[in-house]
Structure formats: structure tokens, C-alpha cells
């Protein structure tokens, strides 16, 4: 048997934000400052709501507990996570604790977090990646409205992450026919949007990517990328090289087209400060990404991939 979990309702496309009906007495949770969130709330047309905008970036379980203790007695009808990963992660955890449904509205794109059962929170100062069915949204609203004004480099990094997640997810050994259908379609939408200059389709492609890889996993490309993240390289940017080299190593059907997209987006090659052998040891501990890789990976394979990334020979 295979299981695929996605939100009950998905509103997407032009005007999704404004055309969605939001229940009265909703609690909106965001990290955005009032001048920004009031613009978004206007666009949503939401009325009769409560606002909690004190979520800290890279939130911890303390942020979740702050929401619970402040709003438990106010009995909100629904909890809306409006923002990037931080706002959504707090709502993913807090809503089921309060026994309330949740609506996730991503204002950034790339991770597909609005579609997944993943939740990243700090516990005792340490980031933890949790995955539980109860973190899934009851409704997700995906609208490209929020892209306006986003710096080009952030847009490029984000679409690179979505494209990497779709294509690595397609190759994952944890996948099934339905996840592969979703990952393949996500790749097609994103490839077309990148190559034919249709960035307004990025959030939609990223959403399908989340539905696909969120029900299986990413693989070698993501495993390689974390040694660069440790040196401060943005996640999406590190995948531009790491996933290209991983696809070459895995003989992925997406290799040529992934590389074409990276060239079109104009990513530069990565630097690695760490010693390659030591970095490879770190990569080898990442069983969560290496075990579902379509072919077994040895330390020698990782060293070879890291050297290719450093040399920019992909
Ligand atoms: Zn990623």
C-alpha cells in the first residue's frame, strides 16, 4: 500500500488570496511587521480576526507556547499561518495543540512547506525537523501576489530549491507512482516557467513539488548541500551545483534540463572551505537523504561529487 497526504483544500492561482473565504474570529499568525501584514490582510479581505505578529524568525517551541497561552481562552475558529516557513511552522504545531483547523498561506515559495507534514522548530536552542500527520494544513492558499518586490537572487534560490526537490523526489526510493507523477509535473511546470520567463508560475510549481517530495524524500543533492549550508551558503544556491552533480552521478533523467535551468538562472560555482574528505564524512552521516538515493553512495562517490562541485565541472 502507498499513502499520500495533502491538504484537504488547496486554493491556488490568480486572486486565490482575495477569493478565499476566511471564517470569522480567525487567529492570524505572522512574523511580518504591521505595515506589511496590514497590506496582506487587506488583500485577503479578512474581517473580524485576531493578529499575533510576534513570531521570531527561526522560531522555537516557546513561540508555539506563547500562541497557545495567549489565545486558548479566546477560542479562535481557525489558525492562519501567513508568512514564510517561521509563521507556518508555529501554526503547524500550535493548531493541533489547540484542537483548531489551520490554513497556511505562504508569502515565500520554494520549500513547498504549505503542502507537507514537516515542521522545523528549535527545542533547547537546537533546530529539530519534525514530521507528523497532524502538521498537515486543512487548507492552503497559494498566490503569486507575494512575489512582487522579492529580490531576484532570492527568487532564483527559491525556484532552484523547488526544482531540486521535485527532481530528487522523483528519483527517491521512498516514492511511488503518485509521488513521481506529482514530482514530474512540478518539474515540467518549473522548467517551462524558468526557461520561458514565467516567474508567476513558480509558486504553483513549488506547491506541486511539495506535494510530491513531501510524501517521499529528497536524495543525494540535498545530502551534499548541507556542508555548504554549514558555511553560510543559502540553501537554494547550494543546490544549484549539488543537485546538478548529484543528477549526473545518479544518471537522472532530469540532469540535462536541470543544468539548463541553472545556466539560465546564472548561478556561479560554489566554494568549499572545509577539507573535502572531512566534508564527505559529514555527508555520509546523512542517512535520511542517502538511503533513499536511487543508487548506493560510498564515501569515494561523495568525494568525487564534492570535487566536481568545487571545480565547477558539471
Ligand atoms: Zn530543499
| Integer average pLDDT | 97
Q: Estimate the global geometry from the Cα principal axes.
A: globular
Radius of gyration: 19 Å
Report the sheet-strand fraction: 5-15%
Question: Considering DSSP H and I runs of 4 or more, what fraction of the residues is helical?
Answer: 40-55%
Structural class: alpha/beta
Strand order of the largest sheet: 1-8-5-4-2-3
* Poorly predicted sequence stretches spanning 5 or more consecutive residues: none
CATH class of the largest domain: Mainly Alpha
Instruction: Please provide the count of β strands.
Output: 8
- End-to-end separation in angstroms reads 38 Å
Number of domains as seen in the coordinates: 2
Secondary structure layout:
Elements: E1 9-12, H1 16-19, E2 26-29, H2 34-44, E3 49-52, H3 61-71, E4 79-83, H4 85-98, E5 102-106, E6 118-123, E7 126-131, E8 139-142, H5 152-171, H6 177-195, H7 202-213, H8 220-229, H9 235-250, H10 255-265, H11 276-284, H12 287-290, H13 299-311
Helix pairs in contact: 3-4, 5-6, 5-7, 5-9, 5-10, 6-7, 8-9, 8-11, 9-10, 9-13, 11-13
The structure holds zinc ion.
Residues 161, 165, 222, 235 line the site of zinc ion.
Amino acid at each position: 500500500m502507498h499513502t499520500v497526504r495533502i491538504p484537504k483544500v488547496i486554493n491556488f492561482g490568480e486572486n486565490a488570496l482575495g477569493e478565499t473565504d476566511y471564517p470569522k474570529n480567525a487567529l492570524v499568525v505572522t512574523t511580518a511587521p504591521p505595515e506589511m501584514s496590514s497590506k496582506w490582510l487587506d488583500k485577503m479581505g479578512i474581517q473580524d480576526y485576531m493578529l499575533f505578529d510576534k513570531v521570531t524568525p527561526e522560531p522555537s517551541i516557546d513561540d508555539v507556547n506563547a500562541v497557545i497561552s495567549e489565545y486558548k481562552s479566546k477560542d479562535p475558529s481557525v489558525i492562519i499561518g501567513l508568512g514564510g516557513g517561521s509563521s507556518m511552522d508555529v501554526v503547524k504545531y500550535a493548531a493541533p495543540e489547540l484542537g483548531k483547523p489551520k490554513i497556511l498561506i505562504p508569502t515565500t515559495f520554494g520549500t513547498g512547506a504549505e503542502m507537507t507534514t514537516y515542521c522545523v522548530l528549535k527545542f533547547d536552542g537546537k533546530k529539530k525537523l519534525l514530521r507528523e500527520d497532524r502538521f498537515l494544513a486543512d487548507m492552503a492558499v497559494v498566490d503569486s501576489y507575494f512575489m512582487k518586490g522579492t529580490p531576484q537572487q532570492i527568487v532564483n534560490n527559491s525556484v532552484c530549491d523547488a526544482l531540486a526537490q521535485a527532481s530528487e523526489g522523483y528519483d527517491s526510493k521512498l516514492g511511488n507512482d503518485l509521488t513521481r507523477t506529482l514530482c514530474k509535473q512540478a518539474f515540467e511546470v518549473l522548467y517551462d516557467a524558468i526557461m520561458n520567463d514565467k516567474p508567476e508560475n513558480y509558486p504553483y510549481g513549488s506547491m506541486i513539488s511539495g506535494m510530491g517530495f513531501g510524501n517521499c524524500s529528497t536524495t543525494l543533492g540535498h545530502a551534499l548541500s548541507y556542508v555548504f549550508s554549514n558555511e553560510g551558503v543559502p540553501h537554494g544556491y547550494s543546490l544549484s551545483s549539488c543537485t546538478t552533480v548529484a543528477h549526473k552521478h545518479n544518471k537522472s533523467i532530469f540532469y540535462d534540463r536541470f543544468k539548463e535551468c541553472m545556466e539560465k538562472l546564472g548561478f556561479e560555482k560554489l566554494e568549499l572551505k572545509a577539507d573535502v574528505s572531512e566534508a564527505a564524512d559529514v555527508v555520509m552521516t546523512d542517512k535520511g537523504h542517502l538511503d533513499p538515493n536511487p543508487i548506493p553512495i560510498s564515501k569515494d562517490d561523495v568525494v568525487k561529487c564534492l570535487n566536481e562541485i568545487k571545480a565547477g565541472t558539471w
